[in-house]
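Training component of the fellowship. As part of building independent skills, the fellow (R.M.) carried out the full modelling exercise for a liganded target. The chosen ligand was iron/sulfur cluster. The inputs are recorded below so that the supervisory panel can assess the work.
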Amino acid sequence: MTAASPLLEARGLSKFFPARDGKGVVKAVNGVSLTLAPGETLGIVGESGCGKSTLARMLMRLIEPTEGKVLFRGEDLLALDHRQMRAKRREIQIVFQDPYASLDPRMSIAQIISEPLEIHGIENRSGRAARVKELLSLVGLDPSAADRYPHEFSGGQRQRIGIARAIALEPKLVVLDEPVSALDVSIQSQILNLLDDLKERLRLSYIFISHDLSVVEHVSDRVAVMYLGRVVEEGRAEAVLGAPKHPYTQALISAVPEIDAARRRNRILLSGDPPNPESIPPGCPFHPRCPFAIEICKSQYPSWRGDAASGAACHLVEDSGGTGTA
Ligand code: SF4
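Fellow's submitted model of the complex:
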């Protein structure tokens, strides 16, 4: 792999489920293509139900895609058999949203953190015990925490334990699925700082899933905005969040009080029903809620347009070369 090669690439990734009425299909994720460079953080944002968590799980093959490809360091993950994929998981780890549900209450912290090492046959018992203590220090907890149980810790401390478990195998990529949304605001920034610090020290790359734009802005190099299963805008974080091209991104930014007033000056309020993946409107799926919709938006899905910094799927965006993402 050369320095310029992507660490992770999704090509035309889709996941369709049978609809609850038994007739149609729910297009939870529809034709998503994304690239993550080594050392980068890609933030994926969108409202609940936009498909971002399904996408994250497909990138790790925790959910099998309906179609598309996932390339990790150039290797097609979907072509790997069960044993090969299990070995590959050393390099790709996940941190879940809920630090209460994600840690088994019957296991000690030492057992929780050393389990992945044991599964992959790394170190003997005393080597693993030493590694657990080292990992606890790395995530800012006292090594004596190893002998305690999850109920003895606060939400923020539990998320530190979840992070210690995720980095135990020295992965290249960590998928962070809403890692701070279940935490108090005061604790959120401590966990974000810890993630930042670990990224530097361990040369990690992150996929950071969140519905919270102010959090995504804090951590991301690039940002992808999802709406009803598709990426509608993608590019460098400062371009997507500083000068958003897509009206949906503009509306999301308008709704965040923490984002500076200058960027919220032209407020766009989201109208209409929240997105329902079981009945996706024709044309541009955002058209029933878009204040700028024109006739063509009702019938034709917009092509990808943009410039070197960012691109969007919107009929009104000027095209000057694009970012290459669809
Ligand atoms: Fe709005 Fe039309 Fe652009 Fe969709 S394509 S975001 S409906 S202007």
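The panel noted the following from the submitted structure. The CA atoms of residues 307 and 321 lie 5 Å apart. The two ends are 24 Å apart (CA to CA).
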